[in-house]
Amino acid sequence: MISALPRYEGSAEHELTPASESRVSVIDPLRDERWKSFVAEHPNASAFHTPEWLRALADTYGYEPLAVTTAKPSQPLSDGLALCRVKSWITGKRLVSVPFADHCEPLMSNEAFETEIGSWLQQECDRGDWRYVELRPRSLMQTGDSWSSGQSYWFHTLDMSPSLEQIFNSLDKDSVQRRIRHAEKQGLEYETGNSAQLLKGFYPLMCRTRRRHGIFPQPIVWFRNLLRCMGDNLQIRIVRKAGEPVASILTLRHRQRVIYKYGCSDERFHHLAGTPLLFWRLIEESTAANVSEIDFGRSDLDHAGLVAFKERLGGRRQHLCYLRYSSPSDRRRSHATGANSWLGEKGRKRIVRFMPDAVLKGMGRVLYRHLG
Fold first, then answer.
1. Angle of helix 357-367 relative to helix 196-213, nearest 10 degrees?
2. β-pairing, 92-97 with 132-135?
3. How many DSSP H helices and E strands does the chain contain?
4. Is the pLDDT score of 176 beyond 90?
5. Is residue 12 part of a domain?
6. Between residues 16 and 326, which one has the greater pLDDT?
7. Are strands 257-265 and 293-300 parallel, antiparallel or unpaired?
């Protein structure tokens, strides 16, 4: 017997109904304790698989999390794929694994995906009015010809097995080592934690950085929900000069991996080298906590400056390629989706940089729920 997808309060009848002959079960990862246990133990799971991340997505943007598995309702989970339903009158209805995550590895063998999960997702997409299914695997996947390559990025990780001294010596001597030593002489005040007070220092820097890059900031409620849901597995690191926030980074931890998720700074203080210092504090504290890997996240292929910075920090570059299965109707039409397509990059940046703060934040509140 196949389990039905749990209904969400205030939602319509669920729209994903496994056929009776299918071996696929659909579960609610927010309520099914098996998912929490499975993710806690799986070696390839990340913070993006956790019920806490999925809860923050649901509470902020109204996305409906689900997980698909070949396990029967009475069995422990041996595999699983986390997804969210994203319903938007702007960008359409789609299934994403998972929104705002740099990657979300399918926690299953290629065989299980090709013979069960993948084919079921294709059938659901074809018979429903879903535009597409998007997977964001961290590693290369073997899929059928029906799945096409989606967006691509560079992805960097730092191996934490060497000693702290070896890691420091591997950093770029001029742009990282020298700047860390410079920052340590500037009298910067350093603080780490997950308090609301730290968020008050982080968020204005985030808005300032997004404006500088011509991108709308995500709403403050997203970060409040992350703090509430992730607890001690989220850390904000911030440096100040005479009480003024200079730079900040936000990281997520799951098991022995740390993900650098957000970074921001005040360009007026870049000469103080607060950002290199923050990354070095992250490396120091991760070493002390026996972290095995720091995930520096994805970078756009053409963002040469960011890619170079991560490599100067010792990050190893990999290719990250998303996968997409499009419905027949979506194959027949072309949609401009995502933040970078809005008005074209140059036009968007010109407008964003001169928007009043209230308008900038308001646009972020409105648009991000459509862009997951």
1. 90
2. parallel
3. 13, 12
4. yes
5. no
6. 326
7. parallel
277-300 burial: b if 16+ Cβ within 10 Å, else e: bbbbbbbeebeeeebebbbbbbbe
Domain count, the chain: 2
Whole-angstrom distance, CA of residue 98 vs CA of residue 48: 7
81: CATH: 3.40.630.30
Least confident of 23-27, 44-48, 133-137, 247-251: 23-27
Query: For position 281, what pLDDT does the model report?
Result: 98
Question: Measured between alpha carbons, how far is 104 from 96 in angstroms, rounded to an integer?
Answer: 10
Q: Which two tokens stand for residue 274?
A: 């607060």
- Cα-based torsion angle of the residue sequence 251, 252, 255, 258 in order, rounded to the nearest 10 degrees: -30
Same domain for 29 and 139? yes
The conformation of residue 219, written as its DSSP 8-state character, comes to P
Range of the domain at 267: 162-291
User: Distance between CA atoms of 143 and 141, rounded to whole angstroms?
Assistant: 6
Sheet hosting strand 132-135, strand order edge to edge: 25-27, 64-69, 81-88, 92-97, 132-135, 316-326, 148-159, 293-300, 257-265, 244-254, 234-241, 189-193
Distances in Å between the alpha carbon of 181 and those of 165, 186, 272? 14, 9, 10
For 106, the 3-state DSSP assignment is coil
Within-domain flag for 342 = no
pTM reported for the whole predicted model: 0.90
Six token digits for residue 297: 């996240």
